[in-house]
Design a protein that fits this description.
single chain, 286 residues, alpha/beta, Rossmann fold, 2 domains, nine-stranded mixed β-sheet, two-stranded antiparallel ribbon, 11 helices, binds iron/sulfur cluster
Length: 286
């Protein structure tokens, strides 16, 4: 591909096999001879590295700007505390107190301070690792434990996107801000689900999210069971394509439990992942 093409792999809930699909698809594309990058944007719990086993070439610290008050200059006016919508700076007895963890780095308090008492200082929120694994360019974010700035770190992971080739984005589970940050700007979304009532409920939420973002999408059923057709029925009613089904197979679960790729442990599945990529490509090449 001359330009980049981003496929986000998302799911309405955790544990549906999102990373299994994302890593196996990335490796399959590499083995087809195409340039491909895997970006693990599930920054609170990145686990694609367990399967891809990348060599990490560099790690960057990611910081955000938070206020640093110079009490020599502060006149205790309270304007900073009154402005902050997140209670990240609070004036107590005419003295501003900063709660770094709550700060959204909007810069408002620095602008409103009449005496120039507030400067910006850097606070580390996590790390971005860059490397490669068997022909797949690799990137992942790691949020520091207890930090809440997930979207900021995801944005930083995505800033390392390649400019030509296929980018596989492993999104966080759910449908909240971090997922939207991971998925937005993608060309196509695969919504991974499983044939259970919970899977169906969360799939409906995820479908609502991608429709809102106006990104083309299709559904992948993991642990597919011929006796459980609730996902198939929903997709038929809603005119949603089921583009891929991975069967409920004990050997796949065994490979997963020891950190093995399906296409390595069970090579018969490789042609299915090749078919999945070809189907997605055809949607855009006609
Ligand atoms: S930078 Fe914005 S979010 Fe942070 S303390 Fe100042 S006003 Fe609040
Ligand atoms: S706005 Fe500036 S001067 Fe006023 S309380 Fe805050 S830090 Fe102090």
């Amino acid at each position: 591909m001359a330009e980049s093409f981003a496929i986000a792999i998302a799911s309405g809930k955790g544990g549906t096999g999102k990373t299994t699909i994302a890593t196996n698809l990335a490796c399959t594309i590499a083995q087809m001879g195409e340039k491909v990058q895997y970006l693990d944007c599930d920054v609170e719990e990145p686990n694609g590295h367990i399967f891809l086993k990348p060599d990490i070439e560099k790690t960057d610290s990611v910081t955000i700007g938070v206020p640093d008050v110079d009490f020599e200059l502060c006149n205790g006016c309270g304007k900073c505390g009154a402005l902050c919508q997140y209670s990240a700076i609070v004036c107590l007895q005419d003295k501003p107190l900063v709660f770094d963890q709550l700060c959204h780095s909007c810069g408002g308090c620095m602008l409103i301070c009449p005496t120039g008492a507030i400067k910006e200082k850097a606070r580390e929120i996590g790390f971005v690792d860059i490397g490669s694994a068997n022909g797949v360019k690799f990137g992942q974010g790691r949020l520091k434990i207890g930090d809440i700035h997930t979207p900021s770190l995801i944005k930083q992971v995505k800033s390392n996107s390649i400019e030509d080739g296929v980018i596989i984005i492993d999104a966080p589970p759910g449908t909240s801000c971090p997922v939207i940050q991971a998925v937005k700007g993608s060309d196509f979304v695969l919504l991974v689900t499983e044939p259970t009532p919970f899977g169906l409920n969360d799939l409906k939420l995820a479908v609502g999210m991608v429709k809102e973002l106006q990104i083309p999408f299709a559904v992948v059923i993991n642990r597919s069971d011929p006796n459980q057709k609730m996902i198939n029925e929903y997709c038929r009613e809603e005119n949603i394509q089921i583009i891929f089904e991975l069967p409920d197979d004990r050997r796949i679960a065994e490979a997963y439990s020891v950190g093995k790729m399906i296409i390595d442990a069970l090579p018969d599945h490789k042609k299915e992942f090749t078919g999945l990529y070809e189907k997605i490509s055809r949607k855009f090449t006609g």
